[in-house]
Amino acid sequence: MNHHQHATLAAIFAHPVSANIDPRQAFALVEALGGEVSHGGHGHIIVKLGGHTHGFHDVHHALPKDDVVTLRKFLEQAGFTPDQSA
Question: Across the beta sheet with 52-57, what order do the strands follow?
Answer without folding.
Answer: 36-41, 44-49, 52-57
